[in-house]
Every structure is written in C-alpha cells, then in structure tokens.
Fold this sequence. Notes:
Blueprint (H helix, E strand, L loop, with lengths): L17 E6 L2 E7 L14 H16 L4 E10 L8 E12 L2 E10 L2 E12 L8
Antiparallel strand pairs: 1-2, 2-4, 3-6, 4-5, 5-6
Amino acid sequence: METQELNTHLKFNKKFGQLVEIGEGTAKVTLEATEEMAVDEEGLIHGGFTFGAADFCAMATVNDPYVVLVRSQCEFMAPVKVGNVVEFVSETLLKEKRKHEIKVTGYLNEIKVFEGIFGCVVLDKHVLKK
C-alpha cells in the first residue's frame, strides 16, 4: 500500500484508534481495548469504542478535511474485551463526486468482530463553519 499523509481528523485521540496505514481508497486502524473502555467486571468493551475506531478508519479512507459521516449500517459479530487488539481494514466501495461508501471490517486475530458500511460526504467547508 502506498502510504499517504492523513488530512482529516487530525486531533483524533490515538487511544481510541491508531492509524497504521493509509493509501488510495483504503486504510488500516488498530484499537487496543483498555480497562477504561470496559462496561463490566468481565472486561467487555462498549461497542461505541469499536464503532468509533471503525468510523475513524472510514474517515481516513476518504481522507479529506471536510468529510462527514451521514449514515452507517453495522454488525457487531463477536465481543471485544480488555487486552484485545482489533485491526480495522477498509475499502472504498463507491466514490461518486462528493459521496463515498466505505466498507470497514474489524478483526481480532482471524475472527471477524465487526463489519460496517459507512456513507460519507465531502463538504465544501467545515461542517461547523457558517
């Protein structure tokens, strides 16, 4: 994969997802599940952390400063627990002008734990700018 520079989500906290690779229409992010992400004594990780890392992977795949998420369809296929390292990989399914559809799959070793389709749109300016 040809490595590119990240152009979006530059302040994304690395403890919620570490960008490992980024290329044309693809990215790879890892999430190390920590105790502070746990929801119970068994060490189950809240799905929001899994989703957040997958979303960051999708945003990095589009890699535009003004990309926003407009929809998603996700499946959580297996639990993630404290100490696990999930690897998210993405691929661009559709790119039409400003619209992008990105598939992100999360793996824990060989086990698929997450799969999602993220609908993204690139705006002309920052979503919070008038």
